[in-house]
Amino acid sequence: MKARIAGPSVLRPLWRREFSSSTSRRAINKIVPSAQEAIKDLKGSSMILVGGFGFSGVPSSLINAVRDRPELKDF
Q1: What Å distances lie between residue 62 and 27, 33, 54, 67, 71, CA to CA?
Q2: Which range marks the domain in which residue 67 is found?
Q3: Separation between Cα atoms, residue 43 and residue 9, nearest integer Å
C-alpha cells in the first residue's frame, strides 16, 4: 500500500521508483576464458557467494579453482 500526500486537489505519491532511460551505458563483458582468469583478483578472507540449487547451476569449476589455490584462506 502506497502512502499518499494530499495536495489541494491532487494526490501525489509519497515515494516513487525512478528508472534510467539513458541508452549511453556500455555493456560489461563478464565472459572470461577460464575459471582461473575469473578468480585471478580474489584475495584471502573474501566473502564468496555461490548460486545454484542442487546439482544444476552450481559453479563447480569456480569452486575447484579456488580450492586449487592454497594461498587463498579464511573464507
Answers
A1: 23, 12, 16, 9, 16
A2: 33-75
A3: 58
The tens digit of pLDDT for each residue in 45-60 reads 888 887 776 676 678 8
- Spell out the residues 6+ positions from residue 45 whose beta carbon is closer than 8 angstroms to its own: 73, 74, 75
Bridge partner residues of 5 (DSSP): 12
Q: Within a 13 Å sphere around the CA of 5, how many CA atoms are in the beta-carbon half? A: 6
Give the residue among 73, 1, 61 at the shortest CA–CA distance from 35.
61
Residue 69 cell numbers, joined:
589455490
User: How many domains does one find in the chain?
Assistant: 1
